[in-house]
């Protein structure tokens, strides 16, 4: 019996294991905690040894020893700096060389390397360091068992974010709402609200939207286990609500993340978002320049002035030539030419930026070895994929970018339609243009070009471009994963 009055008796055959485990916990307790923690750890380990079947049969002793003290520390508020002894739970795990996010053994140097990827530690992660709640409860003094039960309650949070305010709902693992309220829509305000009202949150859900990237990265940096949910799935899940309010939406999001019936959205890195912002700005400016040119063509046609096939640097001279002697028309076209010139200058600035980024990116340079793939297409592809490890198979990339046919099957009905056009429209368009370049402008033959040309003769050039675009997406992902470059055929391939 210990000073707490609880048994440390273990079954026959477990004595040596018990002595080894308690030696590990005693070493940490007497050096960094106190004798009371050492006694409680011995009681908890004995309770685990008596359990049938004992969970201690699998796993490493260091992980179990860490799990015992980690759970006791959570129940006794070890991380509270106002109490004595006090120690952050992350530091406690480091004393055992164990990472808190999965209980695997690491050296301290390896732990520091993986610190950025480790998930926030809550009581809800207790199973990952290997200690059942029941064993902890039996090891605690009677006065503290209620505290342990309260701490063991997992919490799930739903955030309905708007521009100014965010509705917050906290539910238990049983689905009961324990707190509802609002806070400012800043990561700091949301984090402070969750620390006050959901200290044991194991999953925090917010739906994808304009602010989701900012909130997801900021809340992750603050150590919160936030997940981003697909807005279309959330809409379907919440469509049965009679009353549509922000509070009800937050409650619905909390229930979705509690049940686990959701697919988390992969949030891209901020660097990828910045590169994509530049590409989208360039695309918008190109479209605006095209609209300005078309506006000039329409105005000139009204007065019998045909601009013809002209563009680039020759456009201003041609417009001024046609409007010579027509002062009224010249005023309008000069205004449009000024806008066209300014748009052209800014497009050139963005072109140089994109080219520099692609040149400095090893992956982009490797993808540009594929015929038809230029710096804009390569950079757009790498930023939309962001992490190639997301896809177990390269063939999945075509479907991700909406380049595979839709399918409908029910009973005897089974048909494939046009491509789904899901995913990123910009990258899909660039791949379609790259396929057209490969089939019509690249003179050197390769197996992919020969396949596309044969397909074009059978089903038409437009559909062949779509098929080649899908092949290009698959090929680009495979080169990215393998770290290889495009290999031309040893000899020219006949079409």
Strand order of the largest sheet: 3-2-1-4-5
In terms of per-residue confidence, which ranges show pLDDT below 50 for 5 or more consecutive residues? 101-152, 491-495
Number of strands: 7
Q: Measured on Cα atoms, how large is the radius of gyration?
A: 31 Å
Give the helices and strands as they follow along the chain: HHHHHHHEEEHEHEHHHHHHHHEEHHH
Number of alpha- plus pi-helical segments: 20
Note the main sheet.
Answer: 5 strands, mixed
Mean pLDDT: 85
End-to-end CA span = 87 Å
Structural class: alpha/beta
Structure description:
By secondary structure, the chain is of the alpha/beta class. The chain has four domains: 15-149, no CATH class; 153-259, 2-Layer Sandwich (Nucleotidyltransferase, domain 5); 270-359; 366-482, no CATH class. The chain has 20 helices and seven strands. It has helices at 15-32, 35-50, 61-75, 89-96, 108-113, 133-139, 145-151, 187-197, 212-221, 231-238, 246-259, 270-302, 314-322, 327-360, 362-367, 375-385, 396-400, 425-440, 447-459, 461-482; strands at 155-161, 165-172, 177-184, 201-207, 226-229, 405-410, 413-419. It has a five-stranded mixed β-sheet. Strands 6-7 form a two-stranded antiparallel ribbon. The longest helix is centred in the last third of the chain and has 34 residues, at 327-360. The protein is elongated and about 105 Å long. Residues 101-152 and 491-495 have low confidence and may be disordered.
Short description:
The protein is α/β, with parallel strands linked by helices and 495 residues long. The protein contains 20 helices and seven strands.
């Amino acid at each position: 019996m210990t000073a707490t009055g609880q048994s440390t008796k273990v079954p026959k055959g477990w004595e040596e294991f018990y002595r080894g485990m308690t030696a590990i916990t005693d070493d940490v307790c007497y050096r960094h905690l106190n004798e009371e923690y050492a006694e409680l750890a011995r009681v908890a380990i004995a309770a685990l040894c008596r359990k049938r079947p004992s969970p201690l049969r699998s796993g490493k002793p260091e992980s179990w020893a860490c799990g015992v003290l980690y759970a006791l520390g959570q129940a006794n508020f070890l991380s509270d700096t106002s109490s004595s002894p006090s120690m952050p739970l992350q530091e406690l795990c480091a004393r055992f060389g164990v990472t808190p996010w999965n209980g695997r053994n690491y050296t301290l140097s390896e732990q520091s390397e993986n610190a950025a990827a480790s998930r926030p530690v809550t009581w809800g992660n207790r199973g990952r360091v290997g200690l059942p709640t029941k064993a902890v409860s039996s090891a605690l003094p009677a006065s503290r068992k209620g505290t342990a039960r309260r701490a063991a309650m997992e919490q799930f949070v739903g955030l309905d974010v708007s521009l100014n305010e965010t509705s917050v709902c906290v539910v238990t693992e049983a689905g009961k709402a324990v707190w509802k309220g609002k806070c400012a829509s800043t990561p700091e305000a949301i984090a402070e609200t969750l620390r006050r009202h959901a200290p044991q949150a194991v999953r925090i859900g917010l739906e994808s939207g304009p602010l989701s990237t900012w909130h997801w990265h900021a809340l992750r940096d603050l150590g919160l286990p936030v997940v981003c949910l697909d807005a279309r799935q959330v809409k379907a899940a919440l469509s049965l609500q009679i009353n549509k309010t922000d509070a009800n939406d937050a409650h619905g999001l909390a229930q979705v993340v509690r049940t686990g019936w959701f697919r988390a959205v992969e949030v891209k890195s901020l660097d990828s978002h910045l590169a994509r912002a530049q590409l989208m700005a360039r695309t918008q400016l190109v479209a605006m320049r095209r609209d300005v040119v078309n506006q000039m063509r329409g105005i000139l046609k009204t007065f019998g002035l045909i601009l013809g096939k002209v563009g680039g640097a020759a456009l201003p001279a041609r417009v001024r030539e046609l409007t010579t002697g027509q002062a009224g028309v010249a005023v309008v076209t000069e205004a449009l030419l000024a806008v066209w010139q300014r748009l052209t200058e800014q497009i050139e600035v963005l072109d140089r930026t994109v080219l520099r980024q692609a040149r400095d990116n090893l992956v982009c340079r490797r993808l540009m070895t594929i015929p038809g793939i230029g710096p804009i297409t390569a950079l757009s592809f790498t930023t939309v994929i962001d992490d190639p490890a997301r896809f177990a198979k390269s063939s999945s990339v075509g479907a991700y970018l909406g380049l595979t046919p839709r399918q409908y099957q029910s009973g005897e009905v089974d048909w494939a339609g046009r491509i789904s056009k899901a995913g990123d429209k910009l990258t899909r368009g660039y791949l379609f243009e790259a396929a057209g370049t490969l089939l019509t402008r690249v003179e050197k033959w390769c197996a992919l070009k020969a396949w596309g040309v044969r397909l074009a003769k059978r089903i038409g050039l437009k559909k062949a471009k779509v098929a080649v675009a899908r092949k290009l997406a698959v090929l680009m992902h495979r080169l990215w994963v393998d770290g290889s470059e495009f290999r031309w055929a040893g000899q020219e391939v006949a079409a």
